[in-house]
Amino acid sequence: MEGHTLCHEHAHQNFGFPTEPPGLPTYAWCDKEDAMGNNELDKNTEEVDEHDDEERLERVAAIDVAKATGMVCVRLPHQSVPGRRVSRVFEVSATTNAIAALSDELFEMGIERVVLEATSDYWRAFFHLLEARGLTVWLVNARDVKNVLGRPKTDKLDAIWLAKSNERGMLRPSFVPPAEIRQLRDYTRLRADLTKERRRHKQQLHS
């Protein structure tokens, strides 16, 4: 038959359709693609070298910022066991001196990236002081992070979870304007406030 090849290998199998008339050898018909499928698959198979491009930082930190405090988790390589990592969790006050001391400590540890999670504007003091110390700081959106399955509920475990996600590159930073733009915005807001205050004094003089 045109487009088919005679296959003796499957002659003993019954495919449920009429075979040759009685008295003639019984053969099964199969497509060339089926008969040669394994060989064709072997020919078309290509081995691809996989490269582990997953981001994995060695020294990271995460801070879950609240109104008056920040829960900090630092993840570092174990000093004596290769491949093992150690998490250190502690709380810091959201004051200038405490955050400045934390910045110095993280810098001395060689922290590669710090992740901040906060609602409202509580993150600003942490972000500015850590950045001023020369650390790479990411602000993450609390709504995006909380939607991730498997996130723990307690503050300490939450900080560890954030640090591990930071370590594996699973977080996405929110946009924070560069320092020059932030300074320009501060000047603009100050000018607007002074202009408003001047207008108020003028109105008092004329009243």
Summarize the topology.
Elements (H helix, E strand, L loop, with lengths): L3 E4 L20 E4 H4 L1 H8 L15 E6 L3 E9 L7 E9 L2 H14 L3 E5 L5 H10 L4 E4 L1 H5 L8 H13 L11 H28 L1
Helix pairs in contact: 3-4
Note the main attributes of this structure.
207 residues, 2 domains, 5-stranded mixed β-sheet, Nucleotidyltransferase, domain 5, alpha/beta, 40% helix
General description of the model:
The chain is 40% helix and 20% strand. It is α/β, with parallel strands linked by helices and 207 residues long. The chain has 2 domains: 4-44, no CATH class; 60-176, Nucleotidyltransferase, domain 5, CATH 3.30.420. Strands 5-4-3-6-7 form a 5-stranded mixed β-sheet, with helices on both faces. Strands 1-2 form a two-stranded antiparallel sheet. 18% of the residues are buried. Mean pLDDT is 77; it is low at 4-11.
What is the total domain count?
2
Count the helices. How many? 7
- Mean pLDDT across every amino acid position: 77
Within the largest sheet, what's the order of strands? 5-4-3-6-7
Q: What would you call the shape?
A: elongated
Helix and strand content put the structural class at: alpha/beta
What letter string, H or E per element, gives the SSE order? Answer: EEHHEEEHEHEHHH
Task: Describe the main β-sheet briefly.
Answer: 5 strands, mixed
Radius of gyration: 34 Å
Number of strands: 7
Termini Cα gap: 109 Å
Low-confidence stretches: 4-11
Which bin fits the share of residues in helices?
Answer: 25-40%
CATH architecture of the largest domain: 2-Layer Sandwich
- At the fold tier of CATH, the topology name of the largest domain is Nucleotidyltransferase, domain 5
Q: What's the quaternary structure here? A: single chain
**CATH C-level class of the largest domain:** Alpha Beta
* Range of strand content: 15-25%
